[in-house]
Amino acid sequence: MNANGSGPLSLVVVTAGTGDPSSTRMLADRTAQRVSGLAGRRGHEVRVRVVDLRRLATEITTALVSQLTGPNLQDAIAALAGADGIVAATPVYKAGASGLFTSFFQVLDNDLLIAKPVVLTATAGTARHALVVDDQLRSLFAYLRAAAVPTSLFAAPEDWADPAFDKRIERAAFELVLFMESGFARQIKDESWHSYQHEFGSAGGTETGIDLDTDLMRLAAGGGEPAK
Amino acid sequence: MQFGVFSVSDITRDPVSGRTPSEAERIDAIVRIAQKTEEAGLDVFAIGEHHNPPFFSSSPTTLLSFIAARTEKLIVTTSTTLITTNDPVRIAEEYAMLQHLSKGRTDLMLGRGNTAPVYPWFGQDIRQGLPLALENYNLLHRLWREDVVDWEGRFRTPLQGFTSIPRPLDDVPPFVWHGSIRTPEIAEQAAYYGDGFFANNIFWPKEHYMRLIQFYRQRYAHYGHGTEKQAIVGLGGQAYLARRSQDAVREFRPYFDEAPVYGHGPSMEDFMKMTPLSVGSPQEVIDKTLTFREHFGDYQRQLFLMDHAGLPLKTVLNQLDLLGEEVVPTLRRELAAKRDPEVPDAPTHATLVTAKYGDRAPRQPRPNANRGDNVTGSSPYQDTDTKDANA
Description:
Chain A is of the alpha/beta class.
């Protein structure tokens, strides 16, 4: 059951890994499986949807330069709009998250991910990149006002076989499950959505109605009587 | 239904010849394009307003009055006039003058402008862009309807006993369209005054405009100007035509690929799928344009972007011939046949005069002699009775 009391929970995995197999995708899948397992033990069915940014690469760059959102990108946005939880996964290049990954989140409307719980994950070729997750991904998702869970996941080559890493995955997955089952994001949307800034047509078109009771709306109507 | 052409006045390198026209060439070309718009049987020519290269149109009323003098029936208008960085008093004066000189063949489209540096050039703050637009239009609306205005607001020096001259032709202000693509407050203002609402309909998928136009229609009805379907809606669009579809695609592609705004981005095929752009045979352009009505409802004005992205003048003129001969007559016929009989045409000066005066002669304000100022006395005009005080 999801937080509305009906249907499965929706988990969206966003991965910027490009190899096949991709270690970034492997980490994301491992996290998503753990989320599903933990949630299952607590009586929740989880539906996992993977957004593979490699397949959206040209639509993401098109959106960056031309305001045009292609059909696959629209589909990904719709999935995120309906997500109860997110696993975000990127490889680290040149001391930063993949440009594909950051570009994707930069073309989304600012309010699409408000209050949504997210596990931040990254992989790299060396442990020297370990702080990229908490230094860069966390600030990106803070800007989007998403709820990044306390435990981030970072895998350098030596981590893959380390039991301690598996414990961290367990911890991060459990944090996400608790957020998801609490219905935190949905409650924000239902009860407090108006208190966040929105642009017309944003939030994947799921924004609530236009507020007529504002100073600007009164100015629009000649500056006179309140618009009813 | 009105059909026309709107230009953003860009001066863009022709990617085929490699040549960039001079400002002088483009200014001459735009006059020729406007004349051709009339010769091709279209109704409206609109020009944008910009204050930076690579555009040339900083002085729309000067340009449009010249075009009006060289045409007979064409309605000249803007796309858009900047209601933020222009003083509303200057807009009231300049467009009233244009309206007189063109004998009523003038209307006006307002927009906020999206070039950030323009605001400080004209002493304004872009962070105040929306309240500035709303307040300025509230003032402009009064300046055209009240002979003497007392006014005070946030953004402009107060006015006491101010008369904007000349008074509008026949004391009927030009019809106003409010252009917006993402701002409900602008749609609300258009609805409040019973003005027109224009969506440029160029870059974005239709769903975005559909929501805003629906909001405008609802609010138009809310304010008692008519039913939702009677609201006055205008749409942009862009087309490139050739008798054979494959020729259109081949000819236009280099211009599309290098066009300002969307060049170097999506493929032309994707852009056509997702936006109103039609590149193809006259029948394909007709079919696509007819879908606009299905998405947005019956509407009153269709403007096409035809002269951008470095297209040479000769090509643009050929395009206008094709549009006038092969596309617009069919669209007029088909749209008239489909149109709800309750839906009105776009207002023109003639219909607005009839609506205001019926069979009576329109008012022609005559100033009192040697009055010297507008501050003392009742009215600067001889006809001081109240029948025209319809603010």
